[in-house]
């Protein structure tokens, strides 16, 4: 806008008292507010306006500065002073807030309600005596932390890496201690694996319905999912998965072949070999999430991906954790890999946090020593809870369909065309929290499922099913089930 034209729109600027710069800025502010000087207009240069108004250039400089402070104008190098607040790029934190699932699957991390049975987290409640066991440390339990140690072990305490390698070897994946990197839970292991092998805008293959923590990580790291549909709402579509892996367009594939969360599905051994062969062909890195693999309830699962096709072992990153075996509060998990990939994972872990906290690793070491007993205990408890949950569901909610999981900590229920979101809301009013399908679905779809966990003892689980049955009756009566279109 030329200086003369601007003057025409603030003709009475010189009325009143006060410093000229104050009067001019008050007049301009009013003209901007009522639209006489519209947003987006470029104001005249300070020199040109000063000449037309008959004031010093300094007066106009002060006026523009005041308007800037008020957010009424902004100045950009090369484009002068422009009316309106600067259009900033939408800030990353707000963009992310919408994408993350903290409102859904991860809500259990921050919400607690005494009178509501929470069937959302698949976790052991209480530390089950672990804290007491941990407080009985002896100096001999601290083999690597002597007086001359500075406490920085970026890849993990050697004794814990040894213990984890032995455990992996005993459970079907021969491993050396140098292959293990201790992390803050499986979640950090996944983050490190992703950031090591993929960059912003890269794609990562994953099942359409899977552990939502991976979906959040992709959002945070600005990566994009390539989703593989499920067959029968349960198993990953094998042919589609193999095709994506062979194509080699994605940097990595994230898989939970052993007791998937939430479906509980297990990928059969022959399929595992095909998957690793296909990844080899396409040069795709496989991330095998074994977080739940030791929680088999009927028979040991097929071998992990890292062992089924030795020629491709250097393309597999294996992730494990103590969260589902012992206690999530330990925040101890691990990565296992080979060759150059192992080295790069170690570099990323090192720069991310210089290593996981030593007290937690010592606690984990104590737990590892009694893990055999603990896991046997946990399996027996989960078998009891599974029996209670599935038999009560069959009796009280006979239209619900589910495949009895052969391991893991959850049951994936098909509501038969009723919206998972809508039913989860009704269930909450009846004192049970369940997770609807949408939070596990990479595209946020409501497929008419809910996930129920085996987190509570038998008695509480039974009470939860009774409440769910009451919620279901009310839900059907009120909404006629609010059907969803299942695609
Ligand atoms: C499949 C899967 N991966 C990773 C995680 C994260 O586990 P952690 O608590 O060890 O970070 C979970 C937790 O529920 C999970 O179910």
Structure description:
The chain has helices at residues 3-9, 20-33, 46-53, 57-70, 92-99, 130-135, 158-170, 185-197, 212-220, 238-247, 269-282, 305-308, 339-353, 358-369, 371-396, 420-429, 458-479, and strands at 73-76, 80-83, 117-118, 180-183, 203-207, 224-228, 230-231, 235-236, 252-255, 285-289, 316-321, 333-336, 401-402, 410-414, 432-433, 435-436, 449-453. By secondary structure, it is an alpha/beta fold. The mean pLDDT is 90. A 7-stranded mixed beta sheet has the order 4-12-11-10-9-5-6, sandwiched between helices. It starts with a helix and ends in an 8-residue tail after the last helix. Strand 5 (203-207), helix 9 (212-220) and strand 6 form a beta-alpha-beta unit. Pyridoxal-5'-phosphate binds at residues 122, 185-187, 211, 213, 256, 261, 289, 291-292, 321, 323, 328, 333.
């Amino acid at each position: 806008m030329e200086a003369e034209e601007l003057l025409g729109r603030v003709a009475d600027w010189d009325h009143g008292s006060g410093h000229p710069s104050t009067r001019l800025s008050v007049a301009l502010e009013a003209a901007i507010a009522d639209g006489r000087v519209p947003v987006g207009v470029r104001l005249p240069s300070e020199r040109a306006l000063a000449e037309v108004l008959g004031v010093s250039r300094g007066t106009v400089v002060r006026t523009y500065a005041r308007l800037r402070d008020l957010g009424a104008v902004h100045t950009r190098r090369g484009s002068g002073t422009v009316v309106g607040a600067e259009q900033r790029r939408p800030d990353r934190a707000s963009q992310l807030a919408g994408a993350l699932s903290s409102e859904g699957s991860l809500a259990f991390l921050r919400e607690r309600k005494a009178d509501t049975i929470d069937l959302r987290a698949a976790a052991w409640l209480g530390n089950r005596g672990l804290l007491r066991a941990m407080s009985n440390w002896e100096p001999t339990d601290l083999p690597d932390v002597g007086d001359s140690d500075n406490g920085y072990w970026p890849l993990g305490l050697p004794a814990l890496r040894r213990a984890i390698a032995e455990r992996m070897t005993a459970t079907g994946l021969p491993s050396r201690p140098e292959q293990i990197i201790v992390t803050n839970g499986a979640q950090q292991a996944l983050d490190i694996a992703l950031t090591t092998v993929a960059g912003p805008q890269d794609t990562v293959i994953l099942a359409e319905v899977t552990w939502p923590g991976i979906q959040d990580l992709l959002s945070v790291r600005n990566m994009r999912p390539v989703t593989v549909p499920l067959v029968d709402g349960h198993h990953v579509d094998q042919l589609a998965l193999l095709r994506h892996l062979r194509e080699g367009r994605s940097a990595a594939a994230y898989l939970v072949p052993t007791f998937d969360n939430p479906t509980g599905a297990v990928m059969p051994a022959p399929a595992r070999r095909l998957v690793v062969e296909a990844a080899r062909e396409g040069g795709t890195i496989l991330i095998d999430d074994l977080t739940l693999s030791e929680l088999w309830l009927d028979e040991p699962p097929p071998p992990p991906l890292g062992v089924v096709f030795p020629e491709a072992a250097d393309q597999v990153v294996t992730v494990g954790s103590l969260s589902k075996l012992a206690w999530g509060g330990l925040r101890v998990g691990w990565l296992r890999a080979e060759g150059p990939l192992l080295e790069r994972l170690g570099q990323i872990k090192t720069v991310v946090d210089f290593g996981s906290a030593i007290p937690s690793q010592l606690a984990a070491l104590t737990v590892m020593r009694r893990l055999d007993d603990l896991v046997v205990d946990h399996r027996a408890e989960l078998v009891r809870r599974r029996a209670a949950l599935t038999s009560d569901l069959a009796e009280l909610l006979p239209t619900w369909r589910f495949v009895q999981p052969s391991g893991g900590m959850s049951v994936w229920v098909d509501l038969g065309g009723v919206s998972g979101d809508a039913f989860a809301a009704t269930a909450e009013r009846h004192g049970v929290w369940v997770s609807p399908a949408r939070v596990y679905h990479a595209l946020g779809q409501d497929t008419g499922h809910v996930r129920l966990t085996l987190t509570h003892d038998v008695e509480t689980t039974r009470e939860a099913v009774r409440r769910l049955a009451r919620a279901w009756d009310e839900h059907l009566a009120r909404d006629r089930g609010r059907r969803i279109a299942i695609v």
